[in-house]
Amino acid sequence: MGLLNMGRGEGSQIIQLFGRGVRLKGRNYSLKRSTPGERPKGLHLEKLETLNIFGVRADYMATFKQYLEDEGITPSDEILELNFETRPNMPNTKLKTLKLKDGYKDNQKNGFKRVYFPELYEVPAELQGKIKHPHIKLDLYPKLESIDTSRKGDNTPVNVRNEAKLDYKVISAFDFDRLYLAIQAYKLQRGWSNLRLDKQRLIDFCLGKANIANNWYTLSIPASELEIKQYSDIAKQEDIMLRLLTDYTDRFYNALKNAYEGQFYEITQVNEDDPCMIKMYHFEIEESDDGLDYTKRLEQLQQIVAQGDIGKAKSWNAPGMIAVTFDKHLYYPLLSIEKNADLPLKMRPTAFDAPSEITFIKDLQEFIETPKGQKTIGNKSLYLLRNADSKAKGLGFATAGNFYPDFLLWLVDDESGKQWLSLIDPKGIRNLNLDDAKFGLYKEIKELEKKLSDDKLSLSAFIVSETRFVDLINVSEPKDKIEERNVLFLEDTGSIYLEKLFKKMVA
């Protein structure tokens, strides 16, 4: 492509050129360029996927390059590229995992969006009895405690929650055009093109004319906050209704989706071509003294990994980089960059997204080396795999809000062939409500286990909270009750929370 005498001054044309680039069809019409790990060696596919622009008197390129340098961005012709291949660490045992059958994902031929066109708030006849109407719990006490210091209301202790319903007379004064458009916008934002929304049905639902009346929510709020003294009080309750409707819409849609997709999960085996296996890290390194030093260090690690020397790989380190080599993980090393680290390189993909993930895997490494850990696990073999976080690659669940747990953890009894697969997600939960769908996965996974009818496979799910229990703001239950929901806490240290995890896993 040639651009003649273009971009000599600032203008929308050149901004669009650099901002939008060229839309590619891509492999399998993915509309994306291939990643370094997907390219066959020797074909130079990246050259084919590169747009070259030749222009006459096109001095804007030099101007653009100077602008990049002024902003601290290294131009591409001063970048070193390094493809770092990982090493698979697969066991002889065929590890079982789950996947949605081909053809049943989202927009595929038999996907939920292609097959079902449900009306909001109405369960299709074929799914009647298979799903429960969602129940939304909204606790407004934490928010009110933090912002309301002047309003005179009752003196109810904060640990005693007043449960209330919105008055139908007040609801009838709501701006339903606003509510309808807000839910419509939320639907479009989430990409739920198959969900039908009718304004009159929405009004009837809010006014309790549906068969579930107003039993679909529990609202915890001081009675004084529901008093109507001025018009703004109606608007405040309208905002509360919008929050309830948004949560209900999300839970309703995902309940239908899960009921449909739950019929089509199948057991499969993990292999070296599994999408969760990172085969290659791609580094772009500045051609500077620091950049060359990191290049040298990474090449040394690459050589160690190629030789299969796990011991040496464990001892490798570089400032600002995270490198975890765990002999129980299905590939190594797990590489990432420390948060806020100022390094002369960029990498993709990264193995970790949050510090809690690193803490968990290091706790696990230490725990299995202790006498307590070895006694807890017994004669079972342990394996771990970092789960991919996208629907195209990872194991996720619609019922939990398209939740993709960070790790897949297996215990295997090599004598009987029994396998225990647990989905584990280390995360911060400070602002989450216990009614959040993610906290229900531990139940949903057991329902899925029954449908699979494989007595040699047991499923479980855990959330490992990096948030301390005392810092939770939307939880009024004691800690032991929270742990009954398979929510454990990093603050307890690995020797405690991991022992609880393994005992629950094989129970």
Automatic annotation (TrEMBL):
Question: Which keywords does this Swiss-Prot/TrEMBL entry list?
Answer: Endonuclease, Hydrolase, Nuclease
Top-level taxon of origin: Bacteria
> Which GO molecular function terms does the record list?
endonuclease activity
- Which protein are we looking at? Type III restriction endonuclease
The species this protein was found in: Salmonella diarizonae
